[in-house]
Amino acid sequence: MADQIRVNSDPRAAVTGDSVKPIDLRKRPRIGEIIIQTMLYACGFISIFTTIGIVYVLGHESLAFFASDEVGLVEFFTNTVWQPQIGEFGILPLVNSTMMVTVIALIVAIPLGLAMAIYMAEYASERVRAFLKPVIELLAGIPTVVYGFFALTFVTPWLREIFGRDVVQIYNVMSAGLVVGILITPIIATLSEDALSAVPSGLRQASLGLGATKWETAIRVVVPAAFSGIVAASIVAMSRAIGETMVVALAAGASPQFTFNPFLPAETMTGHIARISGGDLSYQSIDYNSIFAIGLVLFFMTLILNIASRMIVRRFREVYE
Amino acid sequence: MAMKAIDPQYTADTKYALEVRNVDIYYSAFRAVKNCSFGMERNKITALIGPSGCGKSTVLRSLNRMNDLIAGARTEGEVLYRGQNLYDPDIDAVQVRRSIGMVFQKANPFPKSIYDNIAYGPRVNGWKGSKAEMDELVERALRGAALWDEVKDDLKKSGLAISGGQQQRLCIARALAVEPEVILMDEPCSALDPISTLKIEELMFELRQRYSIVIVTHNMQQAARASDNTVFFLMDKEDRAGQIVEYGPTEQIFQSPKDERTEQYISGRFG
Ligand SMILES: Nc1ncnc2c1ncn2[C@@H]1O[C@H](COP(=O)(O)OP(=O)(O)OP(=O)(O)O)[C@@H](O)[C@H]1O
Ligand SMILES: [Mg+2]
To answer: A12, A54, A110, B95: which one has the fewest Cβ atoms less than 10 Å from its Cβ?
Structure first.
C-alpha cells in the first residue's frame, strides 16, 4: 500500500528517556462497518423500490382500465356518476366526498390541534407538557376501526338528535368528517407544537418586554414565526385525512353519490376501494381495474400535497441567525 | 382582582426614575442577589458592571419584572417606580413593561418587516391612531434610534435582513415606539463591531434627554465613557450571591474608588 505511514520515533523519547511504542497508522479493513453501511444503504433503497413498485402496479392496472373502450380519460374526470354496474365511471362523486370529509376534518382539526399546540408550547408547565404530549401521541395510535365505530355509534346518533332524523341519514359524510378530524388532530397538535417550540425564546421575551400579554405574544409573534411548520403540519394531516379509510368505510356509507349535503351518505375514494377490493370481483374485470385508477388519482393527490408542503416550508422558513 | 395601573398623575419629586430597596432575588432555593439597594437617576445612564455571574442581568430583569418569566424566580424587597413598589401584589407586570422597556443582549427583531417591528409595541398597547400617524410614529422611533436614514427606503424589508448593528438599533427603535420612561439594556453591544458600538453609545447620550437608561456592560471603557453612574457588583464567595460593592458617579468609581476590589476590577486585575 502506498499510504502506509509508520511512526517509529517520538521526539519526546529522547527527552524523557522512555522507550516509545511504535504507533501503527496504516489503514485497516473494518468489515463490520462495511456490512452495516451496505445494509443501511439497502434499507434506503427498499423504500424507493417499494414506491416504484406501487406506481408500477397502479399504472399498469389503470392503463388496462383506460385502454378498455368502456371509459375514456375525459369521461373519467368529468362524469358525475360512478356506477360500474351500468358502465358509468366518473370519479367526481368519489373525489367530492373525499374532499368533503377532508374539509370537515380540517375545519375541526386545525383550530383544535393548533389550540392544543399553543397550550402545550406556550402555557403548559414542563410537568403538564411531559404528561400531555405522550397522551396526545397515544391518541394517534388508536386503531382507526375504533374511531369508525365511535363515529357510527356515538357521533351519528348525536347528529341525528340535533338536526333531526329525517335530515341526517344513518350513514353520512358529516359524522365521518368530524371523526376523521378528531383522528388527525394529534398530528396537527404535535407537529405544530414542535414548530412553536422551535421559535427562539428571544422573540417571546422581546414581545413580552414591549408590554404584550402572553396571548398576544403567542398569536402575533410565535404563531406567525412558526407559520411554515404549522402549514406543513396541516398538509400532512390533510393527506392523512384523504387517505383515511376505515372511518369513512364504516360511517359514510357505501353509495357513490355526487352531493354537497354532508348529512347524506356518500362514498369516498378510499371507502370505495376498500369495499370493492373486499368483495368478490374477478380479476381483470373492468370494475376491478377501476379501483387502481382511483388509487392512482389518490396517489397523485397526496404526492402533490407533499410537494406543496415541502415548497411552503422552504419558502417561508425564517432564518433566525 | 383588578390590577392597579401605574398612577399617571404621579409627579416625581425624587431624583430617581427607579429605586431598588433591599432586594434579594432567588432562583428556586438559590439566592442569586442579596441586599441590593441603589437608585437610578432620572435622565441619566446607570451602568451595572461586575464579573460574570454576579447577578447583573438578574437585577436588570427585576426592574421590569422580566424575571417573572423564569420558573422559580422570586424577588424580595422593593423596586420603586413612580412611588409604587413594582412587586406589590396588585401591580400588573404587563403594564410595568409598557413603561419600562428592555433591549436584549442578542438583537431579536421579529421575523416581520422593519415597519411592523416598530408598530408592534403600539399595536399591542391598544393603538387607535390612523395609518398616517403610525407612519409618523415609526419614523420618529427609527430616527430616535439613528436608523431612519439607513432603512427609510425599505421599511418593508424583513427586520432580519439587516446587519447585526442595525438589528440592535431596530430593537432600540422598537422599544422607543412604546414611549417608555426607562429603558433597560443588557449588554446591547456585546455582539457588535466597534463602529456599531460607538453608534449605540452616541445614541444613548441622545436618548438620555428623554429617557432614563440602565445598561449592563462587560466593557469597562464603555461604562467609563458612556455612563453617568456606575454600580459595581461582586459575588460573595461564601454563598455565591451577588451584591453591590460600591456605587456612585462613574467618574468617582473609575478614578477614586472607595473599595479596593472595585479598583482591582476596573483595572482588570480580576473578573
Ligand atoms: N434562569 C436562571 N435559572 C437559575 N439560575 C440562574 C438563571 N439565570 C441566572 N442564574 C444564576 O444567577 C446568577 C447570576 O446570573 P446573571 O445572569 O444575573 O449574571 P450576570 O452578572 O448577568 O452574568 P454575565 O455577565 O455572565 O451575563 C448566576 O449564578 C446564574 O447561574
Ligand atoms: Mg448577564
So the answer is: A12
Low-confidence ranges of chain A (pLDDT < 70): 1-19, 280-283, 317-321
The reply to whether A210 touches chain B by the CB within 8 Å rule is: yes
| Domain annotation covers residue B48 | yes
B34 lines ligand 1 (CB under 6 A): no
| A209 contacts chain B (CB < 8 A) | yes
For the Cβ of B27 lying below 6 angstroms from any atom of ligand 1, the answer is yes
Ligand 1 site, residue B57, Cβ cutoff 6 A: yes
In a domain, B103, yes or no: yes
Interatomic CA distance for residues A172 and A152, integer angstroms: 9
**Helices B164-177 + B194-207 axis angle, to 10:** 20
Per-residue pLDDT tens for B138-153? 999 999 888 999 999 9
Any CB–CB contact under 8 A between A203 and chain B? yes
Residues 262-321 of A with CB under 8 A from B: 318-320
Instruction: Give me the interface pTM, i.e. the ipTM.
Output: 0.88
What is the amino acid identity at position B110? F
Q: Identify each DSSP E strand in chain B by its residue range.
A: 16-27, 30-41, 45-49, 73-81, 84-85, 100-103, 182-186, 212-216, 229-235, 242-249
* Chain A CB within 8 Å of residue B61 CB: no
Single-letter code of the amino acid located at B159: G
| Domain total in chain B | 1
Inter-chain residue contact B110 with A216, CB threshold 8 Å? no
For the stretch B57-92, pLDDT in tens is: 999 999 999 999 898 999 999 999 988 999 999 999
Does a structural domain hold residue B163? no
CATH code of the domain in which B73 resides: 3.40.50.300
Asked if residue B9 is part of any domain, the answer here is no
SS3 percent helix, strand, coil of chain A, rounded to 5, is 70, 0, 25
Distance CA(A78)–CA(A90), nearest Å, equals: 6
Domain containing residue B243? 16-108+183-266
